[in-house]
Design a protein that fits this description.
about 0% strand, about 130 residues, 5 helices
């Protein structure tokens, strides 16, 4: 596991996110309250900033996961995947729930974004163990 594994894990998560959010686009748009353009699409979809931020966030999470895995002796595909599920489900999703609770976001958005965090971290954990 090295820098390459972190980069590949971030790429895998980013690609998964594209599929996840394209599949759930209508639900996500309705639940998130994102501003829409005249065509009914997110108004900021042509801005590179959300995509850059998303990829950099994935890099940071993958890098910290690699560090934690190394310190914890996690070194198999199964351990990496299960630890990733735990990170997404029990660390990231509760933070998202806290933010959404105070901002009054609907539970649907928590399930969409928490599902992405959980499955995305599981995927990153698996990729970290492959490379």
């Amino acid at each position: 596991m090295g820098l390459l594994s972190v980069i590949l894990a971030a790429i895998a998560n980013f690609a998964f996110g594209a599929v996840w959010y394209m599949s759930l686009a209508k639900l996500w748009i309705a639940a998130s309250g994102v501003k829409l353009d005249e065509g009914g699409k997110p108004a900021n979809r042509s801005s590179p900033l959300p995509y850059i931020t998303s990829f950099l966030g994935a890099l940071l999470v993958a890098g910290m996961m690699r560090h934690v895995y190394s310190l914890s002796g996690i070194d198999t595909f199964g351990e990496g995947t299960i630890a990733g599920i735990g990170i997404g489900l029990f660390l990231i999703t509760p933070w998202i729930a806290t933010f959404y609770g105070f901002t009054g976001k609907p539970p649907t958005l928590l399930f969409i974004d928490g599902g992405y965090a959980t499955i995305g971290c599981a995927l990153m954990g698996a990729v970290l163990m492959i490379f």
